[in-house]
Every structure is written in C-alpha cells, then in structure tokens.
Amino acid sequence: MFPKVLAAFLVATTTMVATSSGAAIPGPPAPVARERIPPECEFTLIPSAPVPEDADLEAEFSFQLRTRFAQEFPDIPFTNPPDRSFHDGPDGNGFYSVNRAWAIEGVSDEDIVDAISGWSVETFPPATIPSVSWKVDSILCFIF
Questions:
Q1: How far apart are alpha carbons 139 and 62 in whole angstroms?
Q2: Is residue 22 included in any domain, yes or no?
Q3: Which domain CATH number covers 75?
Q4: In a domain, 14, yes or no
Q5: Residue 124 and residue 67 in contact, taking contact as beta carbons nearer than 8 Å
Q6: pLDDT tens-digit map of 14-30
Q7: What is the tens place of the pLDDT at every residue in 106-144?
Q8: H or E element at residue 86
C-alpha cells in the first residue's frame, strides 16, 4: 500500500512542478539523431593477450560481441554479420573484421568505436577466456 501511495505522490508532484512564471519545466532533451554507419566501413578487433591453444576464438568472440552489443545498444536488434571474416593471426591470436552495416544501423561511428574499444572479457557474463580483452586495431572505410 505504502509504495503505491508514494509512487502516486511522486507522479503528482513531478507533473505539477512549474516555474514561477507558470510555464512547465521542460523534460529531458530529445535524443540526438545518430548517423547510419556506412556499409563500406569495417573494423578489426584483435585480442590483446595470447589465448589458449584449444580456444574456439571465433565462437568466443561471437558470443561476447552478441552479449555486449545487447548491453550497449538494447534498442537495436542484433543480427549476425553476413560478411564477417575471422582470421587466425601469426601467433595464434585471431582477429575479426566485420562489415559494420550488419546490425548497427542508427549508431554512429564514434559510438560504436567508443563502445567496442572499451570492451573486455571481464565485462561479459560467463567468459570462457578470461585473460583476453579485445581492442580496436583498425577501422577501414572505402568510399567510392
């Protein structure tokens, strides 16, 4: 009972708040429109530490990316990239090139780069390769 009364009171008081001139206080600013990421752009992520020899790096990264993407951009549906490519590096460390048109429509380059460059396995629920964090190695945009 008490939580319902408190909630009703808060709703009533916050909706009736006005400035001294009688004008209602404006709400939060409207979200800024984000530009679409050009389909010609791709980013490359590389692990920042050696990984176990028997690790399925591609499956691990795919799981981590899907999980983290959902946390960072819950309102944008995730779909598997149609032209993603996974490469095994010279030291057994893989890297991932992903065409950014796959699932990030509506997110600007800066947003996705800022988000991904800070990702690390420690932030993912259950990580199977806890010693690896991923970092952005390069961003390529081919504009013709």
A1: 19
A2: no
A3: 3.30.70
A4: no
A5: yes
A6: 344 444 445 555 555 54
A7: 455 455 545 554 443 333 333 344 444 444 444 444 443
A8: strand 85-88
